[in-house]
Amino acid sequence: MEHSKIKIGIVDDDLLFVQLLKNYIENNGDYQVMLTSTGGYKFLAEQDSASLDLLILDLRMANGDGLEVMTELSRKETETKIIILSSFYRRSFMGQMLKMGAHAFLPKEIELEELLSVMKTVHHTGHYFSNDQIDVMRTQLSNKLPEFHAFSKNELTDREIDVLRLVCQQLSTKEIADSLFISPKTVETHKTNLMIKTGVKNMAGLVIYAVQNKVIDPEEIVLFDK
To answer: Does the keyword field hold DNA-binding (predicted)?
Structure first.
């Protein structure tokens, strides 16, 4: 059976950049760029025509910026994972990007090989944090972002807390299942219950919740070696 490719969308108002990135991605992995767009509004009008696994999204665009796209996709509760790739990159924006639904936040100066690595990580685990972003989050999130939900860690089951800790360690569903000796389907059920109880909408949100509510120590969050 032919391995299904990861479906990608690219939204950026630099047409040359979009074309070059599309060619590079399709020539270097199990990816298929399903659509490209030079503006957020155009993408939102077209995006229902393709089911995307990953969306590479610029922040600043004249015809509908990245924030508007994230807001609309969050409203629609899409399963597409969003990688913000922008020249308007600031580490201090990391908490806001995650809260709005981004699964990774990267500068456009990133090496192409590293971008592919991040794409694989986001597709595999649901989110990506670099070392310096984790350092910012450790000092920022628990003090400046509001609680997501009224549930406390004491209202999560022991198994849900086990799953949450492993999510924060960047383990995939299969790896969590193997670690806890349960089925992948059961892991997905626990993840769904965690998101319902905490009120978050993605895996990155669960990590923020875990830090804010002291389910884990920030030092437990897995860092990526560059």
So the answer is: yes
